[in-house]
């Protein structure tokens, strides 16, 4: 056994941790008679040659030996068969070596097919999956289906038949859904869903009963974090609603929790889902199971506007936040406060401020808060009565933009009580006030905060703060944190003292490290402000060609230079066009091209595709700035789709972030139409 294992130059192959010279010994141990040693070795192989799903050259070489052990090893043969199947499954494995790994597994197809008749039902269960992923046809699966009596093995055969022979398997799967053992019922139901076939009448009660019984499908076959979520995510809406209703009405708290999780996933992928599914959680608000109650609050926290129908219940839980604010983890009260944030319900203000009192333990990381007029009024009243609460509320207010304008007097008054926090918010809101000067000077000198430094200059005329901030960024270890670099052109000769340190970054090539590329672009802005663009453009072009976020800063630099020196940067148009398919910088490239005279009609495609880039923060302001009315069809298409974009927020925030982006898209369309109408009126005159 394992002939030829030592003939492979393992040290010349790589895995997740470098050279793969430890792989042959792990393979030997995986076949050991000592079950614990074999299990440990298989675990290490998962960590090295199949690290978090990544396959590598050593994986290709290991496959024949893993197949040999799956067929004739002493222990854990089923584990090895599962592993081989996952190595060939593009839902489980990825990496540059995947095509060769899949080919290696396919070359052992007959070995895996033979395991369908193994005496061990656990091996047969794994073999059906592995054989399908190795490219086996339907014939061997049907032959085994005719005689297989182990429920788990029969279940995985059902999933395999649905994948490789859906046209012929519909009848058998429908029968299995209604009359099979619990594991077979859930597997057959999923197989029908995946094949696009309808469930037979009477499926749902038996399916939920199977879930109550503890039936499940193996991890390798699952298509979500929890296998059962597909039961609600995949069916047509009326069927999915009934599945969710029956799962939530189950006598088993485990099934009710699974139903809540699945409901959340449906809302995450479908805009039309929350109004249909969120009302189903009402009966569970007072569920006797604490885990179910927590699951309900998770649903409401992530459900977007549809959670508003339960706002009073949520507010009742949020009122208890001061009692639990020091606890670790996301308590029900914590989730309730976040839900009120997202709904724009002002009843979060009081409990958060009370919980943050100096004599109380407090832990809260505020996310985005919807600044409804009611919320703004409640925050204003709180700041007027207790200016020191700005320490807690400032982090929420800073992202509100124009909506926070009514709070400016209270924020200025709060500076003596919560100086750094209040000054930081004033800076974010673009409100210059002398009371904030000491704090802005500190931010500029110690943190290289250019926005603070420029605010100091606007108030005092003193360029020293700007020089200090730029020096800290260009000569020190401070990294540039600003999303957008400010245009320094108007500072001109005032930046001359920085020329030596800035020029050192202008090498004509893009630095290997992205943060240093950002510094190169900043250096280019400094030098160009003093002596014009000619000497900086080779470096700017190199960073632009390098892509990713530094290229966005480079494109922004070109856009700013194009205003004063259009002829000098015109030769960069091809480079900018090269970036129009890159989601990291296509928006900035489009703006730069527009400033070079490219019609917005030519840029409508990349601008439209960029709606969800950077969670939608950049595209819409750029579209309005350019007056790109040609993007209206793309904006309307975005609003008309039912599926959500997974690129706009973290997994926990998809619904509310998508709803907020929809609001901003509608506002953008209205502004573009107003611009178009104004242009038409001007033309008619």
Automatic annotation (TrEMBL):
It comes from the Bacteria. InterPro entries: ARM-like (IPR011989), ARM-type_fold (IPR016024). This is HEAT repeat protein.
């Amino acid at each position: 056994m394992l002939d030829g294992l030592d003939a492979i130059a393992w040290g010349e192959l790589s895995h997740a941790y470098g050279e793969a010279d430890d792989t042959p010994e792990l393979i030997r141990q995986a076949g050991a008679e000592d079950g614990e040693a074999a299990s440990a070795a298989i675990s290490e192989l998962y960590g090295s040659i199949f690290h978090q799903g990544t396959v590598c050259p050593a994986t290709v070489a290991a496959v024949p030996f893993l197949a040999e052990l799956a067929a004739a090893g002493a222990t854990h043969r089923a584990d090895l068969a599962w592993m081989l199947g996952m190595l060939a499954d593009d839902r489980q494995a990825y990496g540059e070596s995947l095509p060769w790994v899949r080919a290696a597994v396919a070359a052992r197809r007959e070995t895996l097919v033979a395991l369908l008749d193994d005496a061990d039902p656990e091996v047969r269960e794994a073999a059906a999956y592995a054989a399908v992923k190795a490219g086996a046809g339907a014939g061997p699966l049907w032959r085994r289906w005719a005689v297989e009596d182990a429920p788990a093995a029969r279940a995985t055969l059902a999933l395999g038949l649905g994948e490789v022979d859906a046209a012929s398997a519909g009848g058998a799967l429908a029968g299995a859904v209604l009359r099979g053992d619990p594991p077979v019922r859930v597997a057959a139901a999923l197989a029908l869903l995946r094949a696009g076939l309808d469930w037979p009448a009477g499926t749902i009660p038996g399916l939920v009963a199977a879930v109550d019984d503890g039936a499940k499908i193996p991890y390798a076959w699952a298509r979500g974090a929890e296998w059962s979520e597909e039961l609600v995510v995949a069916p047509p809406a009326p069927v999915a609603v009934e599945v969710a209703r029956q799962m939530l009405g189950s006598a088993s708290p485990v099934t009710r929790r699974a139903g809540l999780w699945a409901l959340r996933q449906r809302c995450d992928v479908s805009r039309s889902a929350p109004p249909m599914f969120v009302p189903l959680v009402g009966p569970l608000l007072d569920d006797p199971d604490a885990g179910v109650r927590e699951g309900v609050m998770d649903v409401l926290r992530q459900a977007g506007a549809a959670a508003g129908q339960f706002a009073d219940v949520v507010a009742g839980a949020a009122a208890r936040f001061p009692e639990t604010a020091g606890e670790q983890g996301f308590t029900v009260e914590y989730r309730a406060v976040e839900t009120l944030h997202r709904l724009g319900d002002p009843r979060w203000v009081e409990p958060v401020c009370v919980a943050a009192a100096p004599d109380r333990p407090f832990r809260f990381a505020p996310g985005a808060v919807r600044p409804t007029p009611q919320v703004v009024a409640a925050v204003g009243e709180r700041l007027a009565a207790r200016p020191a609460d700005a320490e807690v509320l400032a982090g929420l207010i800073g992202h509100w933009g124009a909506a926070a304008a009514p709070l400016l007097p209270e924020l200025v008054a709060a500076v003596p009580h919560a100086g750094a926090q209040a000054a930081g918010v004033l800076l974010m809101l673009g409100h210059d006030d002398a009371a904030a000067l000491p704090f802005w000077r500190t931010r500029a000198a110690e943190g290289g905060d250019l926005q603070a430094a420029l605010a100091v200059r606007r108030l005092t005329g003193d360029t020293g703060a700007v020089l200090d901030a730029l020096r800290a960024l260009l000569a020190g270890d401070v990294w540039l944190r600003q999303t957008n670099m400010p245009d320094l052109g108007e500072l001109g000769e005032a930046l001359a003292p920085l020329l030596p340190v800035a020029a050192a970054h202008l090498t004509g090539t893009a630095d290997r490290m992205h943060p240093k590329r950002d510094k190169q672009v900043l250096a280019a802005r400094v030098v160009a402000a003093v002596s014009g663009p000619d000497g900086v453009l080779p470096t700017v072009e190199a960073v632009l060609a390098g892509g990713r976020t530094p290229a966005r800063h480079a494109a922004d630099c070109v856009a700013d230079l194009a205003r004063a020196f259009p002829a000098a940067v015109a030769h960069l148009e091809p480079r900018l066009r090269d970036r129009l398919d890159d989601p990291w910088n296509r928006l900035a490239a489009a703006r730069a091209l527009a400033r070079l005279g490219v019609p917005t009609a030519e840029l409508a495609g990349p601008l439209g595709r960029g709606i969800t880039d950077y969670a939608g923060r950049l595209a819409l302001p750029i579209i309005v700035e350019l007056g790109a009315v040609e993007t209206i069809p793309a904006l309307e298409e975005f609003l008309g789709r039912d599926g959500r974009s997974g690129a706009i927020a973290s997994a926990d925030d998809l619904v509310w972030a998508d709803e907020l982006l929809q609001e901003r898209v509608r506002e953008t369309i209205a502004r573009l139409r107003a611009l178009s109408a104004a242009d038409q009126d001007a033309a008619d005159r």
